[in-house]
# Entry
Amino acid sequence: MSLNTFGHLFRVTTWGESHGPALGATVDGCPPGIEVTEAQLQHWLDMRKPGQNKYTTQRREADAVRILSGVFDGRTTGTPVQLMIENTDQRSKDYSEIAQKFRPGHADITYFQKYGLRDYRGGGRSSARETAARVAAGGLARAALTALIPGIDLRGYMVQMGPRKADRARFDDAQISANPFWCPDPQAAEEWAGYLDTLRKSGESVGAVIEVVARGVPAGLGAPVYGKLDTDLAAAMMSINAVKGVEIGDGMATAALTGTENADEITMGKDGPVYSSNHAGGILGGISSGQDIVVRFAVKPTSSILTPRKTITVQGENTEIVTKGRHDPCVGIRAVPVGEAMMACVLLDHLLLHRGQIGDAGGRIGDTDRS
Ligand SMILES: Cc1cc2nc3c(=O)[nH]c(=O)nc-3n(C[C@H](O)[C@H](O)[C@H](O)COP(=O)(O)O)c2cc1C
# Structure
């Protein structure tokens, strides 16, 4: 069992630390013949990379991805794809003060308790720099999904910053990349800008809720018991740094609904079943229904803040810490492309599993020979 790998057939192993020479992902099981270039993957990495605007950390990392293996003449060969990103902005001195202290809200203390040592330079393996490797792997998964499911559309966006929610009545997909928060509600984005500016200047931070939606996913991905699509999506999202909650469809809110309100009614349409609503988030019994797959996750506020916090030293003394250095006031912003990448990897993994086990033999509603 490896604790650095996820996926069943599309298997992603990430490696590396924030202050080592490089980090990356080894992707095994990608189908052959998928067109992919470094420039294509770089597009997704640029969405996550630091220093894109004043609302994300001012660390300077090019996050330039290189494909070292598994691609020939611009197409995957079916062999392991090795993706590498060099670390270029490793200012270890920013972290020297915290070598003996555990930063509240970080993995410093638990990592030390587990392993008996730690790489205090930026959190080592626990650093969210690791998510760059997932985004690179997710770019490859997207390329494969686009080739195998024409018309699939996968996007993430922020629906809440701190207590401030975006208004769904104002959602416009075209707005998502038009503001620094990946917010589909332009008015909320404007309000969040002022709100986050004030927080940033006072050395504070805030949490966020991200939604990731996949449209055009065929019915049938997932399995009813231990291979549920929602189980794997929840695990994938929960594995992202700072994520403290995951919902599928209406999630926690379904507890307050009645059965009549919650169960999405089905009628027969011209091209197959039509659902009256999507409380289920596109998954029934662990299997995709053909509706939009909807996943939301809550990201906690950045723990590294300029406000002094009580903590202890490795020697067990009480002390205080102010985490200097360069940090995001709302890590939720940079978590958006990471959520998209995890969704892409899980969907491709389940598509490959489905093709392997079922092929083209699934039930066709309205086809009396096959149903
Ligand atoms: C893209 C991204 C960037 C992050 N950057 C920071 C950061 O600059 N400062 C910080 O305190 N936490 C940051 N985090 C969160 C920490 O990595 C995370 O809180 C920490 O590793 C402890 O893990 P946990 O919150 O999952 O328990 C970031 C998270 C993500 C997803």
Notes: Residues 5-358 form a domain with the Chorismate synthase, AroC fold fold (CATH 3.60.150.10). The chain has one domain: 5-358.
